[in-house]
From TrEMBL:
This is Glycine--tRNA ligase. Belongs to the class-II aminoacyl-tRNA synthetase family. Keywords: Aminoacyl-tRNA synthetase, ATP-binding, Cytoplasm, Ligase, Nucleotide-binding, Protein biosynthesis. It comes from the Bacteria. It comes from Saccharicrinis carchari.
């Protein structure tokens, strides 16, 4: 099945099973804004808990923060967002559609990468176990030709971004004959910059109102509170501040479902270090964050690092962790060495000293910062994309049917276990309710007695429930139940008294966190 078709099915699945809804849908919706339904909010909260616990519980020198969305407007002047928080946009004159010029070029590069992957895949099938991928890539003429194109575009693209050369960005689009996905034409306007911040007003009267902004990132809330946390928490360098919160960007080219939205959520760590130690910590957090992703078991081959084509003016190192989405490898997390830019800027604009006195060095300095920033919504999408599965099964009558399931990591699954009485009579519902009541304080459970047991299994598969417990007549005799495993559909008989321990072992956040240390 084409990846584009998989993505369309995934989007429809999110709506059908209560994961994600279009915001204000009864009024025809609001573009690039989404609501999380009853299943989506559970999955999202589990992702956030895994991130927060891995940062704060596993690191004695990391603490949490929850800063306000509204901030003093000078904050955004100091951070550079007022003057430089822009996207390079280009319009197609025929379709009247607007695109980010850099995204159009990145998509072009990805097309050449896909061609290489297809050549490699065909060769793997042809040569089997004897296939040497590195040798093939270094000798195959078609692979080499595509790689040469990639390198050529990368070189020009990187130079244009770093020089803020909008004319050459357009020229790349023209030279490589990038067409509008809607009209198919190549009739483009010039590239121009567009500021992404939402503004509003604060004040009791229209005349006395002041212009402020919805924050476009959560990081600045950490920087302006750096000294408060350091002093009240008696924190010593190196230390970090972790925060989960909403951010807002006026994305003109919002697309790909929840991948790029106007209202989104970030999980960020700002880690304060001595000047000169930043690259050591940059490498440390790169390794730790990649391990965090891979520990979920979504396939190591689906993750990669991608170094930035253009470094922000304040950064001396930056890389992204990308995940293989149905529409290609895309960024889910960024790791940046931000130097002392942010604190130095806020120190200058506020007139307040934001230096740290280092007793070991016996001197004061403005700390450097290493940042890890992950989009909750993008992480959510990557998990769903990796979990969405269709397989063929045979029903009780010997008929083949397609089973749709979400192979979610058990620790992140919205519902950990469904309790299903085989029949709605003979005391089975009452016994099933007893089991629910005994486990509901430790696990998020669901009770379901409607329809045949097969249909109930399918419903639970579709929302990613890893375990189904069936209560039958034998349960009333010996206090045992059948536990059915989502991914394999295997079943085993277990004692009701053992259910808590079985579940705890398989869905324990503690066990997952232990794998990171």
């Amino acid at each position: 099945m084409a990846q584009e078709d998989v993505f369309k099915k995934l989007v429809a699945h999110c709506k059908e099973y209560g994961f994600v809804f279009q915001s204000s849908e009864i009024y025809d919706g609001l573009s690039a804004v989404y609501d999380y339904g009853q299943m989506g909010v559970e999955l999202k909260n589990n992702i956030k808990k895994y991130w927060y616990d891995s940062m704060v519980k596993l690191n004695e020198n990391v603490v949490g923060l929850d800063s306000a969305i509204f901030m003093h407007p000078t904050t955004w002047k100091a951070s550079g967002h007022v003057d430089a928080f822009n996207d390079p946009l280009i319009d197609n004159k025929e379709s009247k559609k607007r695109y980010r010029a850099d995204v159009l070029i990145e998509d072009l590069i990805q097309k050449f990468e896909v061609k290489i992957e297809k050549e490699v895949s065909k060769a793997q099938k042809r040569f089997g176990e004897s296939f040497d991928e590195d040798q093939f890539k270094s000798t195959n003429p078609r692979v080499l030709a595509n790689q040469e194109k990639i390198n050529e575009i990368h070189t020009r693209f990187s130079a244009a971004l770093n020089n803020n050369d909008l004319e050459d960005l357009k020229q790349i689009i023209i030279d490589y004959e990038i067409a509008c996905p809607i009209s198919g034409t190549k009739n483009w306007t010039d590239v121009r910059q567009f500021n992404l911040m939402f503004s509003t007003e604060i004040g009791s009267t229209a005349e006395g109102a002041s212009k402020i902004y919805l924050r476009p990132e959560t990081a600045q809330g950490i920087f302006v509170n750096y000294l408060n946390v350091q002093k009240t928490g008696r924190m010593k360098i190196p230390f970090g501040i972790a925060q989960i919160g909403k951010a807002f960007r006026n994305e003109i080219v919002a697309r790909q479902f929840i991948f790029r939205m106007r209202e989104f959520e970030q999980m960020e760590l700002q880690f304060f270090v001595r000047p000169g130690d930043e690259m050591q910590w940059f490498e440390y957090w790169k390794d730790f964050r990649m391990k965090w992703h891979k520990s979920l078991g979504m396939g190591d081959e689906n993750y990669r690092f991608h170094d930035h084509e253009k470094l922000a003016h304040y950064a001396n190192a930056a890389t992204d962790i990308e995940y293989r989405m149905p529409f290609g490898f895309k960024e889910v997390e960024g790791i940046h060495s931000r130097t002392d830019y942010d604190l130095a800027q806020h120190q200058e604009y506020s007139g307040k000293k934001l230096q740290y006195f280092d007793p070991e060095l016996n001197k004061s300095y403005v700390p450097y910062v290493v940042e890890t920033s992950i989009g909750v919504d993008r992480m959510f999408l990557s998990i769903l994309a990796g979990a969405y599965t269709e397989d063929e099964v045979v029903d009780t009558k010997g008929k083949k049917e397609t089973r749709v399931l979400l192979k979610l990591p058990a620790i992140l699954a919205p519902i950990k276990m469904a309790v299903l009485p085989l029949l709605k009579k003979a005391g089975l519902p009452e016994k099933a309710r007893e089991i629910v009541d005994s486990l509901k304080f430790d696990f998020n459970l669901q009770y379901d007695e409607k329809d045949s047991i097969g249909k109930r299994y399918r419903r639970q598969d579709a929302i990613g429930t890893p375990f189904c417990i069936t209560v039958d007549h034998q349960t009333l005799e010996d206090n045992t139940v059948t536990i059915r495993y989502r991914d394999t559909m295997e079943q085993e008989r277990v004692n009701i008294a053992d259910l808590n321990n079985i579940l705890e072992e398989k869905v324990s956040m503690k066990n997952l966190l232990k794998s990171l240390v």
